[in-house]
């Protein structure tokens, strides 16, 4: 009998955000309608050259502002914009 490898594909969402006042990509999953932030990485604006990417950065960073401290994310947006 042969061993069968099972591959589970999980769709991960991401967007741009300001985290600790720096540009970052935020990675999150939506489970039961509620997003869970999985992690983030800081990026430079110069890495994204197309007009479409620049527009995404401008739109997303206007909506999503977080502070990351003690392994927790705190939403700083007064309107409470939701991920996803």
List the keywords.
84 residues, alpha+beta
Structure description:
The N and C termini lie far apart (44 Å). Strands 3-2-1-4-5 form a five-stranded mixed β-sheet, with helices on one face. The protein has one helix at residues 51-63, and strands at 13-19, 22-31, 34-42, 65-69, 72-75. A hairpin with a 2-residue loop joins strand 1 and strand 2. The protein has one domain. It has 84 residues and is of the alpha+beta class.
Could you give a short description of this structure?
The chain is α+β, with helices and mostly antiparallel strands and 84 residues long. It has one helix spanning 51-63, and strands at residues 13-19, 22-31, 34-42, 65-69, 72-75.
